[in-house]
Design goal:
membrane, single chain, 12 helices, alpha/beta, transmembrane helix, 12 strands, elongated, phospholipase activity, two-stranded antiparallel ribbon
Length: about 450
Amino acid sequence: MQIRGPVTLQENDKYLYGNERQPETTTLLDSDDDGIPDFDEGLYTNVVASEVGGWFSNRSSFSCPRVKPDLHTGDTVATLSPEDIEIVAAMGGSLAAGQGLWDPWFIEFRGASFAIGGDSNFDGLVTIPNILLQFNDRLQGVSHGMGTVDQLPHYQFNMAESKATTRDMPQQAKELVSRLQGQMPYKVLAKRWVLLIMQVGTEEMCSCQAPSSSDLRHAIGILRKGIPRCLVVVVGPIHVASSYSQNVNILRGESCQCLQDVTKSEYVQLTRDWHDMLHAVEAREINNLHYPTFGVYAMTQLDIHSRDPQSLIVPGHPLLNRKGHSYAAKYVWNRLMAGPKFDTDKLVFSEDSYFCPSVGCPYFRTPLNFNSCTIQTEFEYQQYLANTPSPSTPRPTRVETMQRNLGTIIVSVTALSICSVSILGTIFYCHGLRATKGRFENVQGV
């Protein structure tokens, strides 16, 4: 791919957050007349869909154009490409831990989890890491095999645990940061991009519980402080439906008895709570904190469907089987490539392909590049560096100089004091040895 100069794509419609949001941010439709409104990504209704740069279905058909070394990427989340990712990690509950992928269902098959599994290859097992390996074959953190989080090696960065909820995310975040910093020096970690997929909410939805916004924000804060370069993709509860009635979540049955017992209005409110909470966490990171190398992208529901939706789940449990995990990987990947306007309504998961990065914006499509996307060649970047004068170093003040050299000053003063005491003590001692009369002896005639 040849790019002669910088290209900036400006979209006419503005992406709104926080105080800029319209009063009604959630689009409520009822496409299949079941009495339950459809939830789309309401905050993204004004975003123009991007044109994908191609597609692939297996390793032999992979033909996504490489942007490196022609383009300069990876300075910020807004210019982060799949080729920049060097580390993958996962947090969350049973789905991310890989439950339901082996018999018996409660075994955690982390090596096959859609979020971080690395067993087999892309042709044999569709996971996010196996797709990323087509772009960069030097990938750390991938999970292999079966077992709990404590049973697998520390160089595998899957912190998910079965039945974990949003309230468990701060502890998982601490363990992930500890494991990452234990595997490499901080100065090395600071130069590597981490893609973290956090899948939460299914267990809580099945128990009719609202999410804990404070715990999720706390976890994000721990990650932000401990992982300098990270894109966190927060994936909400799974929504499995028939292709003919995509708004009806089949988990509202024997898989989630509590959801079957609630009224439609209660179910809608619970879904809305999750939708609004995840977007609020995302908006806080973007609008209020402005960390260029740390970003959060919320996918409020993991929407997958099939003409035979029962073939995607583990009977009697809110878990996806191997086919369901492959659909989940396709949904998350294509959302990352195409942005929030990726439409699953007409998607045939069993037939449709995996997207390549957009031609006009060859990065992960996140809220930081929905409105505009700047492409810079490596040649232009090097020219920019050559023409940018080095920042002048201001002369430090006396107070700053003293603060920087406080230790040296203390040592010097202490050394001078010791020398002074030693010299004066020696003088007085020698003078005392030469004296013929003691200080308090009586002198005749006085």
